[in-house]
Structure formats: structure tokens, C-alpha cells
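## retry 2 of 3
previous attempt timed out at serialization; input unchanged, resubmitting
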Amino acid sequence: QKLNGKKRRLRTKKELRKLKKLKEAKEAKAKREELYKSLSETKLDEKQLQLIHTTKQLGQRQTKRMRLERAFREKALGIETADSSLLTTERDLPEFPNDRPEFPNEVFKVTNQPAPVPVESVERQKRKEGRE
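## retry succeeded, writing output
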């Protein structure tokens, strides 16, 4: 056969098989590249991956500590859930000393002086240093 003035010979079965394999390999490579591209676009970052449970944890009862850790991670991502109530605890405010009339104000003054050390503990410390 002639094609555009050039002689074209017929291909053998072996050549046709090789060409078919090459074509399939190129198509598979193109599909793989497309798949990698779509995976990289939808990839989760490290913080989001930490929120995913492993299959080992399915059916397990989560401890309060585990729930608290998860709540902290969710808070870092800006996700509000029912477990976020674990992050805060309600407690009564302490009474201020001036609210109690039976104690004078002088009792509650704060000083920058160190607390006095009992003489007995100083002597014990000296004896201990002497042994060494």
C-alpha cells in the first residue's frame, strides 16, 4: 500500500500487540496522573486528619480525657460540638475578704516578704550539711 507517495508496510501481529500495550500504558498513566491530581486537591491537612477515628476505636467508649483532647482539636479548627462544653467548667467565685466582717482587713494584706523559716528546720539543715 502507498500512503502519500510513501510505501507503508503491513504490521505484524507482534508489532500490533506492542503498539496496543504502549497505548494502554499511556492511557493508564494519564488516568493515574488525573487521580493523583484530584487526590491532592481534596487532601486533608494534619489537624483535620487528627479528628478522624481509626477503625480500632469504633465501638470503644471514649474516656473523658479522650473527649477533652478531641474538643481541644475541634476548637483549634473552629468546629463547635457538644463536647466543647468540656472545655469550660462552672465554679463559684471565692468570697473576697472584705465581704466578711469578722476578719479585719490587716489579716489579708499581701506582703512581698518571704515566710519566716522556723529555727528548728534551720538547725536540721545545718546538721544535714555537716554530714555530707
